[in-house]
Description:
single chain; mainly alpha; 2 domains
Amino acid sequence: MIIDLKQFIEKEKACWEELEAVLDQLEKEHTASMSLDEVRKFHYLYERVSADLARISSFSSERGIQKYLESLVARAYGEIHETREKPHQFRPVAWFFVTFPQTFRKHIRAFYLSTAITLAGCIIGGMALGLDASSREILMPFDHLIMNPKHRVAEEEKVTKDHLKGVKVRGAAWYMANNTQVALVTMAMGATWGIGTIIMLFSTGIMLGSVAVDYMLAGQTKFLCGWLLPHGSIEIPAILLAGQAGFMLAGALIGWRQRIPLKMRLRTISGDLVTLIFGVALMLVWAGFIEAFLSQYHEPTIPYSFKIAFGCIQLIILTFFLSRSGKNEALRANVSGIASRATPEARSFLAKSGVAPTLEEVGAKTDEAEPTGENVEQ
């Protein structure tokens, strides 16, 4: 109960002005983070001004002050429970390490489908060549693959000087352009309701399977791994991601079990398609450099063990990147309002105060309802 209104206003005015200043700063700097002390202070000011509003509501003559406090409390409440996406600038590093892997995981079932079709092609291609070695010319599109593996390995291992000197950059550009074209076509073929994407992935699998079996039957498995792993550990997953994008497009066109219009379905996945295909392009640029500057050099110039180890490490890093990168940011995005700005320690304080959940609580809920790409196949 307020006994002296004038004294009450003079005493509390500083808190009101401080809360107003904090709110102005938060609204001005959308990406600003808050420390534990700042969050505690904000929480204290919010509760104190809310209490002041409740106390002054009994004075019908002070409508101006009451409206002012209502405005402050409403703004503070909005900051605490805000769910709108804040306007932000494009940040390439955040896009690559957060948005790209998150998008991949969001449509993971389309990736599984892409991988399964490619593996089926590998099995068929390997079986065909194993049963009929003369089918090499049909199954393998490049001249250097048609050669007998033992003869090719013998010729490659005779080279002791830099046989690609002066042409490595041009070779890298060719690999990039060719592989990117294949990836784009694989994705674009999703416009044929996925039929074209299936054909592209299956034919790629047939070629990979036939090459692998051809070299293994000839006893050149070590050469095969040393030749393909350095660039293939990035290039092959990139083609699989392109297939994933193709199936996303096909899913939007088919619209199975979806009642929304085609235009809206395409608009829904358009951002994810762009993210995936740009990520694929970056992967293929890197693979092109590796293929030109490392994969085409064999023993005795570069030991096979080094090339195999390099490829395996790349594949492990890529797997970890696509499966884990951006996970914490995904949880942070599910924490609303001021909690999304707070440090982990400050967010824990908010949770104990009943203002916002902890990141762990949100993570548990997110894991239970992790996006699995069901909207893609539907």
